[in-house]
Amino acid sequence: MKTVIDVQNAVKRYGTGDSSIFALDGVSLKIEAGEYVAIMGPSGSGKSTLMNIMGALDILTSGKYFLDGIEISSMDENALAVVRGRKIGFIFQSFNLIPRTTALANVELPMAYQGIKGAERRMRAEAALAVVGLTERMSHEPTELSGGQQQRVAVARALVTRPALLLADEPTGALDSKSTHDLLDLFDQINAAGRTVVVITHEQDVGERAKRIIRMRDGKIISDESNARRAS
Amino acid sequence: MNILESIKFALRGLTINKLRTSLTTLGIMIGVMSVIILIAVGNGSSKAVQQSLDRLGTNSLQIRSGARGFGGGGFAGARSRGGASSAMPLTIADAQALVAPINAPDVKQVSPIMNANVTCSNGTSTSTPSTFSGVWPTYFEAANAQLATGNYFSNDDVTQGRHVAIIGNTTATELFGTDNPIGQSVRCGGIPFTIIGTTTIKGSSGFSDGDSLFLAPITAIQSSISGYTGLSSIIVEAKTATGTNDAQSEITTILNTRHKIKGSKAADYQIFNQASLLSTSASSSKTFTVLLGAVAGISLLVGGIGITNIMLVTVIERTREIGIRKAIGAPKRVILSQFLIEATILSLVGGLMGVLGGFIGSHFTIAGTKPIIVPSSVFLAFGVSILIGVFFGGYPASRAASLRPIEALRHE
Questions:
Q1: Chain B residues within 8 A (CB-CB) of chain A?
Q2: CATH topology assigned to domain A36-41+76-226
Q3: Which domain holds residue B384?
Q4: Are strands B191-199 and A220-226 parallel, antiparallel or unpaired?
Q5: pLDDT value for B165
Q6: Which residue of A158, A208, B79, B331 is surrounded by the most CB atoms within 10 Å?
């Protein structure tokens, strides 16, 4: 199997000298293609920092990070932007759709940054919105959609570039239980289609849906096991 | 990501807050408009000055009696006439001496002028012409006075001292109303004159009405009204505009000889050169234009600072959006161009509206001046407004582009 994420002895330190804090303190981690992983831990455990690193939003103080076989620990901001656009689909707690822009335009946006032509863009965006069940709501702006619908637009936007990795940061944090359930079903469906999914969460029931659970505390991995109930 | 798409994004960004966008555009518009209009006003007033001087005749020189060095021309003349006994008045003989093809080759023609302050009447209608002068027929060409109706008086009329006169439009209206004045008779200071011609309308230049005019043969004025005292002035027309300075020095030589002015003795006459008057007024109106342009330029600059301010606010307001865009793969260059294009559209639209407003505004008479648009000022104002957009929009744009995505995403 192909390795999508390979983090080697990752250290992320904020500040310098005595007052410095280790957000990541020597983390090593491998995630294979097609896995469904939950990274769990209380706030301050370093899971968000790990997510920023994995998402190429931030760079390491020391250590190495390979995403889909490419070393990105030493890339500059412009190259990171390209990697983010091509390799990663983000899903955020607060949805992070572009305001006053229709669902369709939101989903088209990452393809626009990759230079994909209008007709193909539109076709792929419509297909992605169909996958998340929002064909009827394509021309609605974020404020006209419910939280669950907004998050599904975000999922469509994350999937539309066919990324190596779907990275979700507390995706259910702002959703009610019905929408949470729908979204997690969607994640199962996406993972079943062969996509790698990494969910960062502190909610036990959300983590339980993953096939592998990594627990963190104080910048270190304290447990890494397959989920007995879900592992195939 | 092509340029068309960047423009589309920028336009969408601008329509988010329409009021703010239009106020910013208004700032640039007012800047560009005021540059164009104010420079047009300055240009219009300098053109107006030039035209009125052209009407007076730029080739002409005026000689008045009176010494130099007493300050203003008129006062100097009055003082020396009354005081200094050595001062010789200007005479008809002086005027005749200036018609000298050998000693004064640059002089085209000469006319003595004898002014008087006399009220004319036709029955119950009266008029006191601001210019009531006895002259030679050469005066008309030297002073650039053309006839609307009737005829000039001739050298024969001067020799015979005939009481004929040519009047301006104002004088004609005051004395005869709408009647044709030609052939009518008026009494000026009790002396009858027959009107034989009227001059074309000159309009007023500065403070004096050029059409309040009464011109008669100098002999007639001297014999019946002013007496044979010194002349008021002598008008000289040079052959060419460039020859006025040569003519001036030739006249100086002739008059110095006639008035016995040698060595350190001050001249008892003054020569007024219309050409030098022209250049003085041209340079002062240029200063005026530059001042107006500077004021307008400042308002354009203020408009530019307005763009920076608005773009900075926009960047802060949309920090989170910038973070999202970067997270989903927008390179720095794209963010930079989006904000730069937004600023450029603001200044471009403002600039175009300003040019339009400038053209419209220049159709109105402003402060008594008909503005005349200077084409280069239009290009300058428009170009500067575009530059302002790029320059003043550049800083906020680069700030937006260099935001780090995790910080931008954390921004609420």
A1: 1-2, 5, 12, 16, 320-321, 323-334, 404-406, 409
A2: Rossmann fold (3.40.50)
A3: 3-52+281-410
A4: unpaired
A5: 93
A6: A158
